[in-house]
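User: I'm writing a short report section on ligand binding and want a predicted complex to refer to. Could you take this sequence and aspartic acid and write out the structure as tokens? A short remark afterwards would be nice.
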Amino acid sequence: VEKAICVLEDDAAFDAGRGSFLNAEGRVQLDAAIMNGADLNTGAVAAVERVRNPITLARRVLESDWAYIVGEGALEFARQNGIEECNPWWFVTQEEMERWSRHRGEVLYYLRDGAFYRDVLGSPSDTVGAVAMDSGGNIVAGTSTGGAPNKPVGRVGDSSLVGCGIYADSTRGGGSATGPGELIIRVVLTKHMVDLLSEEVGAQQAVEAALRHLKERVGGCGGLIAIDRWGRIGRAHTTNLMSSAYITEGLSEPVVEV
Ligand code: ASP
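Assistant: Sure. The structure tokens for the complex follow:
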């Protein structure tokens, strides 16, 4: 999960790591979390700058005595643990610089009629996540994001909050979410989805039901990927776009949906 997310963080196409949306001050601040469904251990970081792969930092937090470290403290923790740091400009792409210059000072907010910023902004960019089950049935989930465009300095969305943008419990299943954090937080979306899972209600039904709940209860849209403890896969989105892929035993190539 960590390795898959590192690849996506380094890929400028996504709103995570390099290529993230810039905040109101034109800086990149990153949030990430990882959760081990075997013992419900979690590691999360938020509003961190300069750390090339925030998911690796989140994993290091998971392996420590702590669960969640933010801002300057997260950078300090990264330094103490030898996690790769880079020049803040490494994260800033031409496309995001132009987007920021074009919309500078505007509130690109998605609470307005539930309309998502991607509708307003044109070219899409997305939070990234991964969920995996190993041969022993253990489920791990991770999520990483650059958050919302023009967000205030220090704003943290759902992605790194356990239960909201991520959850994994190997006795039920795990998932990762994308979409407007301010709305996802209100319904604790990913935990809600995991709680729906049962032998009768598989991952696909659960992600669809959870997104319906997000819409009906708070008028939000979003996307979810999931695996349940029976190994069934779910993915759905009520946003315009969400690319996803999965691979299972027996498949020679991943199944991709763009
Ligand atoms: N969930 C992210 C956040 O609110 C944004 C996104 O997924 O597009 O920070």
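A remark for your report: The CA atoms of residues 1 and 90 lie 23 Å apart. The pocket of aspartic acid is lined by residues 15, 126-127, 145, 147-148, 157-159, 165, 178-181 (CB under 6 Å).
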